Amino acid sequence: MKLKKPGKILVFSLGGSLVVPNKGINISFLNELRKGLFSILALDFIEKIILVVGGGKTSRDYIKASKDLSGVSQKDLDNLGIISTQLNAELVKLFLGSRVYGEVLQNPENLPNKGEIIIASGWKPGNSTDLNTVLWALKAKQKIVYNLTDVDRVYKKDPHKFPNAKAFERLSWPAFKDIIGGSWEPGLSTPFGPIACKKAEEHNMRVVVLKGNDFENIKKCIQAKECIATIIG
User: Fold this and answer.
1) Most CB atoms closer than 10 Å: which of 26, 185, 191, 225?
2) What is the CATH number of the domain that holds 140?
3) DSSP codes of every residue in 133-188
């Protein structure tokens, strides 16, 4: 499949499970991420990258440990998730070095002029970093979000559990929401969060789901070449 070329600002949602998978912090991936993003910035039509980092397994571990405690509210669990995204984002920032804007941001109300790469984390309780990614895209006036995950496309079932699960190249927003369901809870793991889907659909945005450690493929998508991905919207 081929996509249209994006604008001068790229917006990525980076799944936290790429940063910290089951075996601990993935230093190899963080090094690949640095090389991959710098390679993308070398494209003559790209000026800036916004990278919103998720909590992934780190978030789910903390939430799972606290979920059954008496007196723990939904907001408490959400806040644990947000803090875990901040931790992951700070780590990514260190690996990307001096080309990054000076601090990890949360609130998408202000888009800094400085820095080739802006790193953001979770923001408000009740929302996923996917929603924050959509808000950053709206602020940057971009209609495409690239969702970097640990799978290469959207599947009808979890491909890690069901190897023969059907993969999709294109999905409408209603069809995608039928796959993931419509309810949000802290630590939810889906290719793109349900609240974020609603916001993206409202603004006629497209979300491109693709393998987050295959930067050759990611670069092809950005350059409007044949690539492996699922386009939603």
Assistant:
1) 191
2) 3.40.1160.10
3) HHHHHHHTT-SEEEEEESSSSEESS-TTT-TTPPEESEE-HHHHHHHH-S---TT-
Token pair, residue 202, equals: 């409202």
User: Would 3 be classed as within a structural domain?
Assistant: no
The answer to whether position 2 is within a domain reads no
3 state DSSP class of 20? coil
The one-digit pLDDT tens for each residue of the chain (233 residues) are 667 777 799 999 999 989 998 888 999 999 999 999 999 999 999 999 999 999 888 888 888 888 788 888 888 888 888 999 999 999 999 999 999 998 999 999 889 988 999 999 998 887 788 999 999 999 999 999 999 998 899 988 888 888 888 889 999 988 888 887 655 455 455 678 788 888 999 999 999 999 999 999 999 999 999 999 999 99
Contact between residue 83 and residue 65 where contact means Cβ atoms under 8 Å apart: no
Residue numbers of the domain that contains 212: 9-232
Position 4 in a domain: no
Q: What total number of domains does the chain contain? A: 1
Q: How far apart are CA 112 and CA 10, in angstroms?
A: 14
Q: Sign of the C-alpha dihedral, residues 83, 117, 232, 138?
A: positive
Secondary structure percentages of the chain, helix, strand, coil, to 5:
40, 15, 45
Angstrom distance (rounded) from CA 102 to CA 89: 12
Helices first, then strands: H and E counts in the chain: 8, 9
The model carries a pTM of 0.91
The Cα–Cα gap between 115 and 98 comes to 8
